[in-house]
Design a protein that fits this description.
Distance between the termini: 27 Å
Order of helices and strands: HEEHHEHEHEHEHHHE
Structural class: alpha/beta
Shape: globular
Number of strands: 7
Helix content: 40-55%
Number of domains: 1
CATH superfamily: SGNH hydrolase
Length: about 260
């Protein structure tokens, strides 16, 4: 392996760290307009990277509401998710990557599973951390166990996909173009297969107006590996259609994945 091959992964990690300090958020709130059931997607940087794919694959058949933040933990995102459970019969959660390195993640995972236990259909995305990790294994095992005792919970096994094909990620954690395509396709397929017959979103509460300004385009894997993401100045949220997906500035306290 040449010198560039040896230092490239480290440079990618440093670049990701720089991006995460600024922090951005994938936010669709209120939901996109559609007569299908509403899907609430909640996650972290992995979800942000896959957001374009998820939107393209899910929004043609469902109303979509989403909140993903760089570095987000379960406790960061749980309040938002809980505020949308009543109007979102379908939930996709992709959290935990930023929890497993901290004490108390078991309690946080339990709180997440308890929060979604009564939802009609929930897709739980397994996590992976680039190398064998007992905490990751235990976290994913708890997700699987939850599906055994609750038939409304289902697994999207991202961890197994990366284990079978490590080329789906570019730094051991974050998905590249192939990885984001896998996530978008498998999340949409899981919803189609697992969430048949869910209630119409017509009965959901009136949507709230989204807010915030664009702090940058959603960075794709190529952006993270080769470019410094530049901010894009746009008009205020009032200049956008209220159901247009937006990236809004987020204050991330720490440099996390």
């Amino acid at each position: 392996m040449g010198l560039l091959g040896k230092i490239a992964p480290r440079l990618v990690s440093i670049l990701i760290a720089v991006i995460l300090v600024g922090g951005c958020q994938w936010l669709i709130d209120p939901a996109t307009e559609h007569n299908g059931p509403q899907v609430a997607v909640v996650g972290d940087s992995i979800t942000i990277l896959a957001s374009n794919r998820i939107t393209a694959d899910v929004s043609p058949t469902h109303a979509l509401i989403a909140n993903a933040v760089f570095g987000a933990t379960i406790q960061d995102q749980l309040p938002w998710l809980q505020s949308h459970l009543a109007d979102s019969p379908i939930v996709v959660e992709n959290l935990g990557t930023n929890n497993i390195n901290h004490a108390g993640w078991e309690t946080e995972e339990t709180a997440l599973l308890d929060a979604v236990a009564s939802q009609p259909c929930v897709e739980l995305v397994t996590i992976q951390h680039g190398s064998p990790n007992d905490a990751v294994t235990a976290f994913n095992a708890a997700l699987v166990q939850a599906t055994v005792t609750n038939p409304d919970l289902h697994i999207v096994d991202w961890a197994a996909a990366v284990a079978a094909d490590p080329s789906l990620v570019f730094d051991g954690v974050h998905p590249n173009d192939s990885g984001t395509a896998w996530l978008g396709r498998h999340i949409a397929d899981a919803i189609a297969n697992d969430c048949v017959g869910e209630v119409s979103r017509a009965s959901r509460t009136p949507p709230r107006r989204g807010g915030g300004s664009r702090c940058g385009s959603i960075p794709g894997p190529a952006d993270l590996q080769t470019e410094r993401r530049e901010a894009i100045t746009t008009s205020s949220a009032e200049d956008h259609h209220p159901n247009t997906p937006k990236i809004v500035e987020a204050k991330v306290a720490k440099n996390r994945d």
